[in-house]
Amino acid sequence: MKVAGLEYRGVSSIDGPLVFIDNIRGIAYDELVEITTPTGDVRLGQVLDVTASAAVIQVFGGTVGLSQEKTKARFLGSALKIPVSKDMLGRVFDGLGRPKDGLPEPLTADRRDVNGMPVNPYSREYPRDFIQTGISSIDLMNTLVRGQKLPIFSGNGLPHNRMAAQIARQAKLLSEEVEFSIVFAAMGVKYDVARFFIDSFERSGVLHNVAMFLSLADDPSAERLVTPRSALTLAEYLAFDLGMHVLVIITDMSNYCEALREIATARGEIPSRKGYPGYLYSDLASMYERAGRLRGGAGSITQMPILTMPSDDISHPIPDLTGYITEGQIVLERDMHQRGIYPPVAGLPSLSRLMKDGIGKGRTRDDHPHVASQLFAAYSKVKDIRSLASVIGEEELSPVDKLYLKFGVEFENKVVSQGEFEDRPIQRTLEIGWEVLKILPRSELLRVSEEELAMYYDEAVTIKSKK
Amino acid sequence: MNEGIITRINGPIVEARNMERAGMLEVVEVGTERLIGEVIRVRHGGLATIQVYENTSGLKPGETVYCTGRQLSVKLGPGLLGTIYDGIQRPLDRIAELSGAMIRRGEKTEPLDMNKKWHFVPTVNPGDELKPGVVYGEIQETDSIKLKLIVPPSQKPTLVKTIVPEGDYSGEETLLVAENNDTLGFYQYWPVRKPRPVVARKQLTTPLLTGLRVIDAFFPIAKGGAAAIPGGFGTGKTMTQQALAKWSDADIIVYIGCGERGNEMTEVLREFPELVDPRSGRSLMERTILIANTSNMPVAAREVSIYTGITLAEYYRDMGYHVAIMADSTSRWAEALRELSGRLEEMPADEGFPAYLPTRLASFYERAGFVETMSGTSGSVSVIGAVSPPGGDFSEPVTQHTSRFIRCFWALNRALANARHYPAISWHDSYSEYLIDIAGWWGQQDAEWKAHRDLLMEVLQEEVALQRIAKLIGPDALPDHQRLTLLVADIVKNAFLQQNSFDEIDMYCSPGKQTWMLRLLATFTERSQNLIRRGAMLADINAISALPRLLRMKSEIRNDDKTAMANLEQQISSALDAIESNLR
Ligand SMILES: Nc1ncnc2c1ncn2[C@@H]1O[C@H](COP(=O)(O)OP(=O)(O)OP(=O)(O)O)[C@@H](O)[C@H]1O
Ligand SMILES: [Mg+2]
């Protein structure tokens, strides 16, 4: 692709990922720039700040090898756009949407601004279709719905990739026979991680239905800032223009945020918490909000960003601001992982905010919301009792408290823990939920109704007593 | 018209020269697409700094800035109710018609439909006095709200010359001509950053009833009061505000989604028209105005959205209505200030926030109040702001400064939210200074209301202390009367404090049911304490067969089901009687 544009030779200074150019004219804010290095490499960049005669440019390809005199800059007249087409499924691209699989550019004249445009809240459709992931801890207690943005908060060494791959493999709707198309974006992760996903998609035979945007650990950090946006631009096209259901997996948002911090620092901006720029929230929102459904439209974008919490700290700005934007979070817990529980989904801090409209009567089963609420309440009591037991000793606990401890263990082993290739239907999951609740005395179960108790709790008890 | 020339673009901040005649806070149109902006700094040499309310991508130095000569204002008149606006009062339904599902920038629309005809009923006659505050006509805006047309504060006193007869008129028509030839119609403008004048501020004595028990009984807000809801992510700020927007006994609700999720606005938009106001029996949307500036919309418009919202609230207050305004979240608004301030290269104070953060917060919360209006009626604006502290840590600047300007603090607690105890309003860290002011009102519903809530509060506070000991030695090692406190506290938490917004019955608790529940729980508490003191066993109380019904009364007994209430009361009291008779 050759686009004519104003070309300038020489830059006034270079600082980290930023290049400063003087004596220019007619440059637009946000405009795309093609930087040619002294050795003839071509890299893309973007105007971050512009006055009548000078511009600050962020170079996605990195500034290594640029020199003051011999660098050339050509201004391309518009913001960064990537091609979009259905043929991009089954392909691999770099963060800027250029083929990385040796195949030619997708054949399409349709190019879209990677920044997208804000969706009018008036035009949204509220997401409410239950997605069965086959993972009990999600389906039962942190339900995913179609069009939701639900991140995985993980830590280094935890099995978030295996879990995301399992969700991608198993996710389905109960009512419809539609497959999810997958758009996968990787920023700053190691090649092994990308390979793991490719293999996993290949093995389940969906690779032809996956578009990948890879900006790996050894690619320039500035490219990471565009990668998720490129992926979401394609996802929006597939979902809102073609009416497809798209699952977007983005990993690892922590690397994205670090790249953003690097640029902000190079620009000398006033930092807020931990050196991250004050606009980190808005910046993250400009991506996370690109999920959902449109009124009258058939398609949807379900987003599952993965982030590793620095030192497992959920109050670190990256998970914290993410949690403030997304519709819940699946938190992985190191302690459970050490105890061999897969998937190690933390019982209490995990949450799905769209669950309420996706489950229950006519969607999963009438008792679902109450069972979930009861399990949360009981499990939170388990946590209290465990800490009490660690002080006064287990023997000193009251009989009911002992039952709670038993419940806690069973809950973790039966509800939470399951196989990486085990696809549990929601009915089975609910059965298991009741099974573990039956460990507790009836009088402890206040969050489920009398009728539900009669139907699911007493039923089994009477069967047992008949034997 | 005055024009300037763009010299620099840095995100939403644009600098321009040749702006000698532009005024501070004047609205300008920027560039060939005429993006809307506001002059926020004027400097020597005709330089001006402009904050632009739309995405500035593609804007070039050298393009023109057009001055408009007016300040950023909202258009006031019939047709506001039921509408969803963006931060600068563009109706989002119209924008959707014009630009599709994605918001294209530079889109210009009228805030109100000028072609729509309204049925106007004049309330003055030729020769009558015409001065600020005079009501010159009425319109039934929705079935539940009558809009009063009031002579604006800027009007010079004069007399009515002519006024149109009752009938249907549309937006542009003149309704009234004054002696001095001034004219009045349906609409007026008001600059958003300027509070609308009132005659006097009054004492706050009536509660804003919310239907949420933990608020109404323990941390009440008065009509005209200001409250903050701070809490980490997912602790329930939005749910609480939505519950208030649904069930509080305000006449009008202004709900501002300020830098939050698009889906939350969609949810309100879809749900409210279907919900019925328990008092008027009308759709909730008929009393609601939504302002949506979601997190992915331009940040400068986020800054202005809360002023837009509160100005609309004051407009209805001036007609004698009680308006409640929810801002979710004021932290995002403060962050917008911080971002703009950073781009202006101002000296930062705490955590990068500008030094004028507290002043701006005050200028928002101070617009709450119960007032005597220019038209001689009483109206109120109650303000409820959500605060999203980073890491859920309340010591950060926005929470700290906010707590100086509010008198009601609903602290959301992470542990409660994690245990799915909703609303996760902590009874330990929350407070309300309005309690004494409004206790009188409750006293009229139930003379012992205050005594009952105080008793239960005491139990809850005592429990916090006992839990500390119980954590060390185990609860069973405590004496019976202390274990009773634990039991009662548990009952109060489950039966009263916890309230499920998704439960058909429990989502709204009427004042009548609340006083009854308080009485029942307080009586139960007192009598059990008494019995234990006289030697009854805790196990006896624990074994009362009606206890599960007590715990479920919130969701099993309807607001108006007097028989079920009497029934339960009877069961509890006879169970206690039985224990008592065994003692003798
Ligand atoms: N009163 C309630 N009844 C039932 N569920 C509730 C209640 N309050 C909160 N929840 C649950 O908690 C979830 C999060 O609540 P909410 O969205 O109000 O949090 P928030 O404080 O606004 O978070 P954020 O700051 O991220 O916007 C809800 O989706 C709902 O599942
Ligand atoms: Mg919220």
What features would you describe in this structure?
The complex is a heterodimer of chains A (467) and B (584). With 467 residues, chain A is α/β, with parallel strands linked by helices. Chain A has helices spanning 136-139, 160-170, 191-203, 227-241, 253-266, 280-288, 317-325, 334-338, 355-358, 368-392, 399-416, 426-437, 450-466, and strands at 6-9, 13-15, 18-21, 32-36, 42-51, 55-59, 72-75, 81-83, 92-94, 111-113, 124-125, 130-132, 144-145, 152-154, 172-173, 181-187, 210-215, 245-251, 292-294, 300-308, 328-331, 351-352. In chain A, 33% of the residues lie in helices and 20% in strands. In chain A, the strands form four sheets. In chain A, strands 9, 11, 14, 16, 17, 18, 19, 20, 21 and 22 form a ten-stranded mixed β-sheet that branches. A seven-stranded antiparallel β-sheet of chain A has the order 1-7-4-5-6-3-2, with no helix packed on it. Chain A starts with 5 loop residues before the first strand and ends with a helix. With 584 residues, chain B is α+β, with helices and mostly antiparallel strands. Chain B contains 16 helices and 26 strands. In chain B, the strands form five sheets. In chain B, strands 8, 18, 19, 20, 21, 22, 23, 24, 25 and 26 form a ten-stranded mixed β-sheet that branches. A six-stranded antiparallel β-barrel of chain B has the order 1-2-5-4-3-6. The longest helix of chain B has 25 residues, at 449-473. Residues 237-238, 260, 328 of chain B line the site of magnesium ion.
